[in-house]
Design brief:
With 397 residues, the chain is α/β, with parallel strands linked by helices. Strands 2-8-7-6-5-3-4 form a 7-stranded mixed beta sheet, sandwiched between helices. The chain has a 4-stranded antiparallel beta sheet with strand order 9-10-13-12. The chain has a two-stranded parallel sheet with strand order 1-11. The longest helix has 27 residues. It has 2 domains: 142 residues, Alpha-Beta Complex (Aspartate Aminotransferase, domain 1); 244 residues, Type I PLP-dependent aspartate aminotransferase-like (Major domain) (Aspartate Aminotransferase, domain 2), CATH 3.40.640.10. The chain has 12 helices and 13 strands. The radius of gyration is 21 Å and the shape is globular. It binds D-malate (MLT). The site of D-malate has 5 residues, from loops.
Length: 397
């Protein structure tokens, strides 16, 4: 008889965003004709830019001609995209070889899959609150956790763990709090990892939302991070590829884990990908090359500026109501303290019922997220303005 992985029973019944969708649908079914204003999931809404579309079209056209047609590609990704990414890092003063870059179908899957190269008895440090994928994927592997509390008192950036851990997940700019770690704060994690032979999994999916030049966009801005950090990147929030699906993972050759030599961990990830992944879509990879070109990056910056204008609109409106608000300055998420003694789900319900606004309850990201909701800036300007107006006019606190 097949036995199932009992660790599934340790997960919440539904994934956070599925639960929100379910509750929102139930409200919509009960209130036909009501327009729901979405500040919940961080889902992009603007169309792709002209350069991204040109790249994707080029990818399609190549498949129409026997001379340029391609079937299976390299599991690690196309050489030209990997080299383009090397150039993207070079522009930030960071050097890699293309063999250190692995193209993925996005940050979500890689941030879960990457843990398969670590032993199940590794102790994993995650922040609380946390992007649920880091938590749930390690629960499924049966790993033990150390929680690093992100609180108002520490600006939602935690201290390094007190004891020894083996793997540390960091996300900066942070989902859900919108906080961004400084270079000094990341250096503490790098120093800790080097001393403890731990590996940092750094999710930089929101790096392009940083406009403060003092704040690090990549963990590799910290000296010696290549010896202890894997970085995961995504074109989802950078270029609206949430549905298109493309990202990458950097596994530096310098990275070592316990009992490994330089290059071994890179080799393990290569082994995993060649076995379990057939590469990202060739069409999409052409789109990625286009997005990372000079013109593509200029256009991506315009998309980001648009969403960040939304973030400012939301942040101002909510703080004008007297609520305590964090994030939203170098990140597309606004972290709002619930008024009075409302729990996250109570405030979620209130925003839904009073204002028809969908938010994300902070408690869905962990116990230290209780008492907060997250608002996302990824909507279209008109909808953001409607949502903000509705909150101003209808929220009864
Ligand atoms: C979020 O809303 O937290 C993200 O959009 C979810 C994701 O990126 O998977």
């Amino acid at each position: 008889m097949a036995k199932i992985n009992q660790n599934y029973s340790k997960l919440p019944k539904t994934y956070l965003f599925s639960e929100i969708a379910k509750r929102s649908k139930a409200f919509a079914d009960k209130n036909p004709g009501v327009e729901l204003l979405k500040l919940g999931i961080g889902n992009t809404t603007l169309p792709l830019t002209a350069t991204a579309i040109e790249g994707l079209s080029r990818g399609v056209q190549k498949l129409a001609d026997v001379k340029t047609y391609s079937g299976y590609g390299d599991e690690q990704g196309s050489t030209s995209l990997r080299e383009t990414i090397v150039g993207w890092y070079e522009n930030q003063g960071i050097e890699f070889d293309a063999s250190e870059i692995f193209i993925s179908d996005g940050a979500k899957s890689d941030s879960a899959n990457i843990t398969s190269i670590f032993s199940d008895d590794c102790v994993v440090a995650i922040t609380d609150p946390v992007y649920p994928v880091y938590h749930d994927s390690n629960i499924l592997a049966g790993r033990k956790f150390v929680l690093m509390d992100c609180l108002e008192e520490n600006g939602f950036i935690p201290k390094v763990p007190e004891g020894k851990v083996d793997v540390i997940f960091l996300c900066s700019p942070n989902n859900p709090t919108g906080a961004v770690a400084t270079k000094a704060q990341l250096k503490e994690f790098v120093d800790y990892a080097l001393v403890n032979k731990a590996v940092i999994i750094f999710d930089g999916a929101y790096s392009e939302y940083i406009s403060d030049s003092e704040l690090p966009k990549s963990i590799y801005e910290i000296p010696d991070a290549k010896a202890c950090a894997i970085e995961i990147q995504s074109l989802s929030k950078m270029a609206g590829f949430t549905g298109v699906r493309l990202g990458w993972t950097v596994v530096p050759k310098d990275l070592v884990a316990e009992g490994t030599e330089n290059g071994d961990v890179n080799g393990l990830w290569n082994r995993r990908q060649t076995t379990m992944f057939n590469g990202a879509s060739n069409i999409v990879q052409e789109g990625g090359i286009a997005v990372l070109s000079e013109q593509g990056q200029k256009e991506a910056a315009e998309l980001i500026a648009y969403y960040m204008e939304n973030a400012r609109t939301i942040k101002k409106a909510v703080s004008d109501l007297g609520l305590t608000v964090f994030g939203g300055d170098n990140a597309p998420y606004i972290w709002v303290k619930c008024p009075g003694s409302l729990t996250s789900w109570e405030f979620f319900d209130k925003l839904l019922e009073d204002c028809h606004v969908i938010s994300t309850p902070g408690s869905g990201f962990g116990s230290k997220g209780e008492g907060y909701v997250r608002l996302s800036a990824f909507g279209q300007k008109e909808n953001i303005e409607k949502a903000v107006k509705s909150i101003k006019n209808h929220l009864k606190i």
